[in-house]
Amino acid sequence: MAKFDEQLPETDPIGVARAIVFRKLAVSAKTRAELAEILKSRNIPTDIASAVLDRFSEVGLIDDQLFANNYAKSRHQHRGFAARAIKYQLANKGVSQQEIDSALSDITPEVELQRAIKLAEKKLESIRNLDSTKQLNRVVDFLARKGYGGAIAYQAAKQVIENIESTIVMETLSELENEDYQVSSL
Question: At a CB cut-off of 8 Å and minimum separation 6, what does 21 contact?
Answer without folding.
Answer: 35, 38, 39, 52, 53, 56, 61, 62
